[in-house]
Design brief:
Radius of gyration: 37 Å
Structural class: alpha+beta
Subcellular location: Cell membrane; Membrane
Organism: Clostridium fungisolvens
Keywords: Cell membrane, Cell shape, Cell wall biogenesis/degradation, Membrane, Peptidoglycan synthesis, Transmembrane, Transmembrane helix
Number of strands: 25
Helix content: 40-55%
Membrane topology: Single-pass membrane protein
Mean pLDDT: 90
Low-confidence stretches: 46-50
Shape: globular
GO biological process, one term: regulation of cell shape
Amino acid sequence: MNNVKKKKKTVNRYTVVIVIMFIIFSAIVGRLIYLQIFKYDDYTDRANTSSRRLVTEKAPRGKIYDSQGNLLATNKQVYTLTFTQTDDSSKSFYTTMKQVFKLLDENNDSQQDTLNLKINDKGEPYFDFNVSSDDSKRALEIRFKRDRGMNDDIKNKLFKGKQELTDDDESKIDEELIKISAKDTFYYMVKFYQMYDMLNPTTDERKTYKSLSGQEITEMLLKKFSINDLRRYMLVKDAIKMQSFSGFKPVTIAANIKKDTASIFYQKLTSLPGVDVALEPMRYYPYGQYNLASSVIGYVASIDSSKKDRYEERGYDVSTDVIGKAGIESAFESVLKGNTGGTTIKVDSQGRKTEELFDLEPSPGENVHLSIDKNIQYSAEKALQERMDYVKTQVNDPQYKISKNFNTTRGAAVAIEAKTGRVLAMVSNPGFDANIFSEPGKLTPDLSKQFFAPDYEAYGKMIISKYNLNKTVDELFPKDANGNRQDKYDLYPKPFYNYATMGLIPPGSTFKPLTSLAALEEGVVTPNETLYGKKYFDIHPDVFGSWAPADEHEYGIVDLKRALAVSCNFYYYEMGYRMYVKNGSDTKALDSIAKYAWQLGMGTDPKSNQKGSTGIEIGENFGQTYNYEYFKSQTLYYSRFELVDALSKGAYGSYNFLPLDIEAKDDDDDKLKETKQQIKDLVVNFIKGSSGGKLSFNDFNTKLKNLLDDLQSNSKVFDDRIKAYNATGRKYSHGAVIDAIDQFIYDKNGAVNTPAELVNASIGQGINNFSLVQLASYISTIANGGTRYKVHLVDQVTDNSGKVVKEYKPEVLGKINIKPETLNAIKQGMYIVNNGTDEGTARAHFVGFPIPTAGKTGTATYNTNEEDYGRSDYSVYVSFAPVDDPQIVVAVVMYDGYQGNMGAPVARAIYETYFRDQIKQQFPSYQPMFDYTLNPPLEDVKDDNLK
């Protein structure tokens, strides 16, 4: 049998390929089966979720009306350009934005700019946070840098690997953050937002750019782009970043664009990935151009990043929502704020809507109806501005160094109903156009600086030159420890400071009706009793010694009515003295006027723990009248500073001594700090009486000497001064210092416990300081016979359908019993002020006015050397009408207004408008003092005629 050797069969390469392909396709098919069958529901949900977007729809804020239904604050629909970040839109971001910016520029529409990192005229970055407080600026700057992750680098350097940071650690990070300049912040953001992508880099180039510093990248970009161009792209990038904290939402590129511009963008949307046009409500103030009631209404603005958490908890979208920042807009924020709605939609790869899934309608905020009458408000605003301009340019009095040029740039006026407390007009000058803050692009860098970062140095130079002051800028606007200038003498006009509710002013002689009431009710005088009004109040040397305050004139025989009419200081000095004697001539008697003032809302009893308020709904400062406890506390508070100043200078009164090292310094050791504090405490507590009952003057002086020995031992500065003094051949002792401090204590005790301040207070001087609203309220209480009403600005709140949600009716805060003869005497005296034949400090301004009015002028001193600092007297005026049945009360103040009667024409303008219908009907031939009062020029703006 032949053995045939079988040939071994080889594997065909094609078979191998087929097998491999079979395996691959089997795996693919298996995966597809798994994904499309077994995981179908899961991946369907994921796909649906990723293509769904919630598009929020802003709710319009509630409206603000005046008492006649005129719109003071409303909303208008505006076109807004938005950008939605998707994979597709991100890839073409710079190309898209370049086209967007070009279209906006060609149509003269502005890009929205809310970034606090600005570029100045020199092309340098700087921070602008729209706040005036240095502490607020610091806090906002830190928040700005933290929001953009700048704290992470510092954290890694200082506390690398540390998981939980303490408050101390965070403070150290903040200290480092605040050191980073605006320029370095700009560099950081250029790199942080990978803005080198503007150069369309390759993959390798991107790796190179990532290793460069922010400054290097910026310098490279500046070869092709301007710094303002870089910032335009940065605005959008930063908005996307900040928006990401609130979830996926479109960011605003430009708001309030023109309709024609919106149409152009609509036509080009297909070539602009991520870009869309929407309609949104924008806050609008129809009378904004007139600054009408701006201090009352307030304004809206975006939410500060420092308050982000607080508002997010309340349901706000901090990246897009605005809030009330002042006035009614702020006080009634929870009422005016609407509830945001939204639509859940499906979007394509470019972020545009393909299908609408769910819709939640936004609900508008509720409406606030004010007691303000826009016509009375306008007359008050215009008349006040005219009078301020008059005083600035027309007044000329040789006794003033600043003749014919007073710095009358601040003022206020208030008109309220005498029998309800309703505010009919409230003016604070200067005001502002609230539309500047709600309409994008209106708040220019120059305006922002003027409002929130005034150039005190330039203003100081202007004041010095204009008024020929012998002062330096450092004296007018001294620098604080951080080198920032402070408006120490209240010279700069502040648009956002409500001078009607926040400014505390000395009332001057407008306080005399109150002193009249107290004196008559106390029975120390009768309405018809007369005395001789001398120039100097020198008739009680047994009580006042040689102290004799002076009046401008000697008025001769006066009773209460004439004393009010001519504003005789001597008469009221005597009233203050008589009440002091009648009530016991002790410290309790020093409250003789205060106990009436408190009932009229002019301060509160310090012992009562009562919170002082007029009831006004917006922010207010509540002033205090002179009283023993308050004056004592103020004296003790300021005595520390006076003591330190005197001891540091080495002089007090007639005593001269070696200057002490008494001022607290950062480099003092603990022993020296304690010694300095013990000296101050010993003196102040002795004046206060807390140690006076235990220490005799001898014991006090012994303890003081020991502390001065300690100061010499612990203070090298003081010890060196003593050695230098002794080197002259003289022998230093503490005797002169102790004698000076003893005199200081004697003087302060004398000031606190003698009736001199009561006498001062009787004419509205001294420490008496009140808001203009307080003055109006107190005059109203007297005018209506003794009922003190809550001062209020809001009549009611309504919902979107007009239904009343809440109504605010007149509310009584207190009552004071006033005898008819007291009330009659005060009214007669105040009537003569405005209508006297030969006398009356405001009579020249009411000639020919047909409605009987009453008034009182007040010329209140800022300080004894006010003219040296560009200041002059406050012009204060109060009034009511008609005299027999008062309906309306007016109070006016002009800072540096020269004389009290200067504000009287403002009251007349208000009266001409308030009584215009009566005047036209009963006095048809009457010629008004102002051409805008009887026929108010402002058109009504109602819901149905708003354009």
